[in-house]
Write a structure and sequence with these properties.
The complex is a heterodimer of chains A (506) and B (215). Chain A has 17 helices and 19 strands. Chain A has helices at 6-10, 41-55, 66-73, 134-137, 141-151, 166-175, 177-183, 188-192, 210-216, 241-246, 264-284, 302-337, 417-422, 437-443, 446-455, 466-470, 479-489, and strands at 13-17, 20-23, 35-38, 79-90, 97-104, 111-112, 124-133, 229-238, 254-261, 297-298, 348-353, 355-364, 367-376, 379-380, 399-402, 410-415, 426-427, 459-462, 492-505. In chain A, strands 7, 8, 9, 11, 15, 16, 18 and 19 form an eight-stranded mixed beta sheet that branches. In chain A, α6 (166-175) crosses α12. Chain B is mainly α and 215 residues long. Chain B has three domains: 1-93, no CATH class; 97-149, no CATH class; 150-199. Chain B is 60% helix and 0% strand. Chain B contains nine helices and no strands. Chain B has helices spanning 3-8, 22-37, 46-49, 56-67, 75-94, 98-111, 119-133, 136-140, 166-201. In chain B, α2 (22-37) packs parallel to α5 and α6 packs parallel to α7 (119-133). The chains are: A alpha+beta (506), B mainly alpha (215). The interface between A and B is medium-sized, with 37 and 33 residues. Chain B: InterPro entries: RTRAF. Chain B: This is RNA transcription, translation and transport factor protein. Chain B: It comes from Trichogramma brassicae.
């Protein structure tokens, strides 16, 4: 590998507009396409700083800087268009989190990479609305937070309260949300308002290891730890009145529930198993990549197909998981307000996935192509009239749910035609870390963070104390910067801003 | 039964006909053949018009066969079919008449339905409207069919593609909105199907004893 100075490295990066940068070929070896990333001034500083630090002589360890990772992905076989970095990008395993890349399914060399999906397969966000307003909830905020905390098991090693047998799990893995529907945990309308209708059809539980199933079984219906949360939020601002109204959001102060969770230990095990299988596959198929962490296999070979089938099972797991928590949240609210969830109008606005690979149709150089689109820390954002989005959102574009961090705002965006053309219908997914977990623990004070939450009027229930620092807003990029950049570039448009009033965390 | 159809045919005693009374049937059938159906040539109609004859029932059966009436059990079904035939013959002639066109146009105006150059399509629209909005239930409970809600500036919506011709663009926008409405209907039916299956399969359970929070 060539060692270059920071100034030499910068020669490969070119600022093409106020919010976008081009990564030229040659920045990393074997780049098949160029890279692009979207940042505003604040986010740009963070990314460039990261690159500068890594270019210092003697720096070792940790992940490669995000921009380098975008370029390494651009060197993978079969990639088309560009390797895209979204504004919330930060380094991750192989692919940066906030990186999307599309591969041509008809190209026999094109690959699928578990690193491009992430360990928490189908980690995503679901938003429920209610017909309550802030004044109804404020007086009982603490009880409500406690009730949610009692209903939804949280934290590492937590177990669900919905009884599951091994056979139930097999069925759930195959059926996704259809399982939850069949068993009566969710409403028919929930399925309609869910990406992929809550079920990936090519899921094959027989491709999933016993170990993964053993890890997954007790965890179904649990929130998990890390950055996952359930929040009670209120509408803080409406940017697009007609689109918001299509989502059932009528006025400021309306109460919503956001659930951010994924496939727990199950998805993690599926990804780990796949990485091992792919390392072998790379030797077999003679695939060379710039970074060991980018282990991958040809889409059309058995290793690639097996991964996609087990990934789909993990995606289904995550949908059942979010559905179970939807059921539990509805119960918690129903008990507190002594009204049925129906009367509280607790409908799912939408459910998005921000860690997944999917086969989609896109235009490449003016021609329709079937692509395998990897979105890691990136949310699908399809424009109005796209056949894959629910009929209720045909005129507004797909709702894109952007979860903030503890104590910061969340957003609902809508997909656009620009996004479809520029980023294969993808946009950001959240704030994105700016400090590592270890660094947050060193720099921040437990009580200080909690006091600040209290000051902001946010009720908080948290299972593990160290998360207080790790998940503090200071550890993350500013979600407003991220969302505003997406809005300015036009790859998605702001619709609703939500502010938390109660947080339940691992 | 066929009172209104007989009235439409301008049969004098339209509200008094009893299909089980042979005298009534004789009178009606002879009148229908003579005035409306005219299946036989005038010279050949003697037998069917001779309602005093003992042979009339046999003549009637032969007549039914000749005009192509299917085999029915009851006298009522036979008469009904004949009346239907007469209506068809009468109005097939009239469907293209200026009178009829004028009638459709007036009906459409009354119902506030825009007119298609083909008056038969306009008639179809009127019939749809009447069946949907003016049926017994809808008249009793207008709230069930009258759409309420916020007016929506439909012409400001983006049809998904742009056409230079503004008129064409308008048409495309309307078509795409109608398409979305069709999709919505379909999705609603799907949801209803799911809900009806759920009434059989659903049995959600929770067991708080199983729950464990954190390590």
């Amino acid at each position: 590998m060539v060692v270059r100075t920071f100034e030499e490295e910068m020669g490969y990066l070119e600022k093409t507009s106020e919010y976008s940068w081009r990564i030229k070929k040659g920045f990393q070896p074997n780049m098949k396409v160029e890279g692009v990333f979207y940042v505003n001034k604040n986010l740009e500083r963070l990314l460039i700083e990261e690159l500068r630090n890594s270019a210092r002589p003697g720096s070792v360890g940790g992940f490669l800087p995000g921009v380098k990772q975008i370029a390494n992905v651009a060197a993978l076989p079969g990639i088309v268009g560009k390797s895209v970095g979204l504004p919330d990008i930060h380094s991750g395993y192989g692919f940066a989190i906030g990186n999307m890349a599309a591969f041509d399914v008809s190209d026999p060399k094109a690959v699928v990479s578990p690193g491009g999906v992430g360990f928490d397969i189908n980690c995503g966000v679901r938003l429920l609305r209610t017909n309550l307003f802030e004044k109804d909830v404020q007086p009982v905020k603490d009880q409500l937070a406690q009730s949610m905390f009692d209903h939804i098991p949280v934290g590492v090693g937590s177990r669900g309260i919905i009884p599951m047998t091994a056979r139930d799990l097999e069925e759930a893995l195959e059926m996704g949300m259809d399982w939850s529907l069949r068993e009566g945990y969710v409403w028919a309308e929930d399925k309609e308002h869910c990406e992929e209708y809550g079920r990936m059809l090519d899921a094959d539980p027989s491709k999933v290891s016993m170990k993964a199933k053993k890890r997954g079984l007790p965890q179904l219906g649990t929130l998990g730890a890390g950055n996952h949360y359930a929040e009670i939020q209120v509408v803080d601002e409406i940017f697009n009145k007609s689109a918001a109204s299509k989502m059932g959001i009528e006025a400021k102060g309306q109460v919503c529930i956001m659930i951010h969770s994924g496939s727990r230990g199950f998805g993690h095990q599926v990804a780990t198993d796949a990485l091992l299988a792919m390392e072998k596959a790379m030797k077999k198929h003679n695939i060379e990549v710039n970074d060991r962490q980018l282990a991958c296999a040809p889409i059309n070979q058995s290793e690639g197909q097996d991964y996609l089938k087990s990934m789909a099972a993990a995606a289904n797991f995550a949908w059942v998981n979010r559905s179970s928590m939807t059921f539990l949240s509805r119960q918690a609210f129903a008990k507190q307000f002594n009204m049925s969830p129906d009367d509280l109008d607790m409908h799912v606005i939408y459910d998005v996935s921000h860690n997944v690979a999917k086969v989609e149709q896109h235009m490449v150089d003016g021609r329709p192509k079937t692509l395998l689109v990897h979105r890691k820390g990136s949310t699908r954002a399809f424009p109005p009239h796209h056949p894959s989005i629910p009929v209720d959102y045909q005129l507004t574009g797909q709702p894109v749910l952007i979860g903030g961090t503890m104590g910061t705002c969340s957003y609902v965006l809508t997909g656009t035609e620009v996004g479809m053309n520029e980023t294969f219908g993808s946009t950001c997914h959240g704030a994105g870390r700016s400090l590592s977990r270890a660094k947050s623990r060193r720099n921040l004070d437990y009580q200080g963070v909690l006091d600040k939450m209290k000051e902001m009027g946010i009720a908080i229930r948290i299972a593990s104390p160290k998360l207080v620092m790790e998940e503090a807003p200071e550890s993350y990029k500013n979600v407003d910067d991220v969302v505003n950049t997406c809005d300015a570039v036009g790859i998605s448009k702001k619709c609703i801003k939500l502010r938390p009033i109660a947080v339940i965390k691992g | 039964m066929f009172k209104r159809r007989l009235q439409a045919l301008e049969y004098e005693e339209y509200d008094k006909v009893d299909a089980n009374d042979l005298q009534h049937v004789k009178k009606l059938v002879s009148w229908l053949e003579n005035q409306k159906i005219r299946h036989y040539k005038i010279d050949d109609r003697g037998a069917i018009l001779d309602i005093e004859s003992q042979q009339w029932p046999a003549t009637y059966e032969k007549y039914l066969e000749d005009v192509g009436c299917p085999q029915f059990e009851t006298p009522l079904d036979k008469v009904e079919w004949l009346v239907g035939l007469a209506i068809r013959l009468e109005y097939e002639d009239n469907l293209q008449s200026e009178d009829f066109k004028k009638g459709v146009s007036e009906l459409a105006k009354l119902l506030n339905i825009p007119q298609h150059p083909n008056h038969l399509i306009t008639l179809e629209a009127c019939s749809k409207f009447i069946c949907k909005r003016l049926n017994e239930e809808a008249v009793k409970n207008p709230g069930s069919v009258i759409v309420t809600g916020q007016p929506f500036p439909i012409m400001d919506t983006n049809a998904g593609f742009k056409i230079k011709d503004p008129f064409l663009n308008k048409a495309v926008t309307i078509l795409s909105l109608l398409y979305i409405q069709d999709l919505r209907d379909l999705q609603t039916k799907i949801n209803e199907a799911i809900v009806s299956v759920q009434t059989i399969t659903a049995n959600p359970k929770t067991d708080h004893k199983l729950g464990k929070v954190g390590k």
